[in-house]
Amino acid sequence: MKRKVGTPKKELEKTVKGNKAEEAQMAYYPSKHLKLTKEFTYSEFKKISDKVELTQKEWSEILHISERTLQRYAKDNSAFNFSLIDRILLIDKVFKKGIEVFGNVIDFITWLKNDPVSIEGELGLHSLVSFDGVTKVLNQLGRIEYGILA
């Protein structure tokens, strides 16, 4: 835009800014599950972990925290941070699906600890340490459920 003689520079800038399209702003609303993050303590985790026969070392590897940190959560019955809650609930989903497919937790964990082979490669308890591994385990459980063992 060419500046007219006598037009102050600030007015010109206002005109130029007014003609530009502005990016829409995202509206963020509090999640209904916000309450969950404050109430998910070690005792809630214990309810989940008691259903499966994993050692504290195995849980600490899956959750990406040290055994000592897990012990501190237990001692204080403190609340987990959001990323740990999300991870715990994801692992709980895997165990629920495994129990649904295999009929009981012992058979599912035995299958998982025997490092089964799937289309995506070798699975195992170590698969639960990453989101990709969890997805592969859930996919394989779906295949077993529908009788597609390849």
Structural class determined from secondary elements: mainly alpha
Secondary-structure element series: HHHHHHHEEH
**In what range is the share of β-strand residues?**
under 5%
Distance between the termini: 66 Å
Question: Helix tally?
Answer: 8
How many structural domains?
A: 1
- If you compute it from the alpha carbons, what radius of gyration comes out, rounded to the nearest whole angstrom? 26 Å
User: Which term fits the overall shape?
Assistant: globular
- Average pLDDT taken over every residue: 82
Task: Tell me the strand order in the biggest sheet.
Answer: 1-2
Share of helix, binned: 55-70%
Low-confidence blocks of residues: none
The overall strand count is: 2
The biggest beta sheet is recorded as: 2 strands, antiparallel
Describe the structure.
By secondary structure, the protein is mainly α. It has one domain. 59% of the residues lie in helices and 3% in strands. It has 8 helices and 2 strands; from the N terminus they run αααααααββα. It has a two-stranded antiparallel ribbon. The radius of gyration is 26 Å and the shape is globular. The N and C termini lie far apart (66 Å).
State the main characteristics.
mainly alpha; 150 residues; two-stranded antiparallel ribbon
In brief:
This protein has 150 residues and is mainly alpha-helical. The chain contains 8 helices and 2 strands. The longest helix is centred in the middle third of the chain and has 21 residues, at 82-102.
